[in-house]
């Protein structure tokens, strides 16, 4: 089962995303701040498959630090960054640092929760594909004695 961590300081957003993803069958953990998010990442017995984090919590770099913590723990963890104040520079910076995607919370005419579910499905598939590729490569090198 896919394990997802949601880190967002807005209770309404955090709970709405949690409910929606749990309805889709995901196992969801939450954290209300950067500090608790980092602690959840570090204390987890097994790395999270997906992390969804707000860009700005305690400060403008909170989401970047969550991103770095998640990818630092497991390079295959896919991170989706949410923001209420999207701009191109932030999006580019997040993608450079390894984010799977960058989603604005307030897009007129768009059901952001539906969009987020789609992004999560895509992230799960990318993670699964990457992990499978590494496993096949490991099996191949074992059979070749490399």
From TrEMBL:
<protein>
    <submittedName>
        <fullName>Uncharacterized protein</fullName>
    </submittedName>
</protein>
<dbReference type="GO" id="GO:0000156">
    <property type="term" value="F:phosphorelay response regulator activity"/>
</dbReference>
<dbReference type="GO" id="GO:0000976">
    <property type="term" value="F:transcription cis-regulatory region binding"/>
</dbReference>
<dbReference type="GO" id="GO:0006355">
    <property type="term" value="P:regulation of DNA-templated transcription"/>
</dbReference>
<keyword id="KW-0238">DNA-binding</keyword>
<keyword id="KW-0597">Phosphoprotein</keyword>
<dbReference type="Pfam" id="PF00072">
    <property type="entry name" value="Response_reg"/>
</dbReference>
<dbReference type="InterPro" id="IPR001789">
    <property type="entry name" value="Sig_transdc_resp-reg_receiver"/>
</dbReference>
<dbReference type="InterPro" id="IPR011006">
    <property type="entry name" value="CheY-like_superfamily"/>
</dbReference>
<keyword id="KW-0804">Transcription</keyword>
<keyword id="KW-0902">Two-component regulatory system</keyword>
<dbReference type="InterPro" id="IPR039420">
    <property type="entry name" value="WalR-like"/>
</dbReference>
<keyword id="KW-0805">Transcription regulation</keyword>
<dbReference type="GO" id="GO:0005829">
    <property type="term" value="C:cytosol"/>
</dbReference>
<dbReference type="GO" id="GO:0032993">
    <property type="term" value="C:protein-DNA complex"/>
</dbReference>
């Amino acid at each position: 089962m896919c394990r997802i961590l949601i880190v967002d300081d807005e209770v309404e957003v955090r709970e709405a995303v949690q409910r929606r993803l749990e309805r889709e069958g995901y196992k969801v953990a939450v954290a209300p701040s950067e500090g608790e998010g980092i602690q959840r990442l570090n204390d987890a017995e097994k790395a999270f498959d997906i992390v969804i984090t707000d860009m700005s919590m305690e400060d403008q770099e909170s989401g970047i630090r969550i991103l770095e913590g998640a990818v630092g723990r497991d390079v295959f963890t896919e991170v989706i960054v949410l923001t209420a104040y999207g701009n191109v520079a932030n999006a580019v910076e997040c993608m450079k640092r390894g984010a799977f995607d960058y989603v604005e919370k307030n897009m007129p005419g768009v059901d952001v929760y539906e969009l987020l579910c789609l992004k999560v499905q895509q992230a799960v598939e990318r993670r699964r594909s990457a992990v499978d590729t590494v496993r096949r490569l490991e099996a191949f090198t074992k059979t070749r004695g490399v």
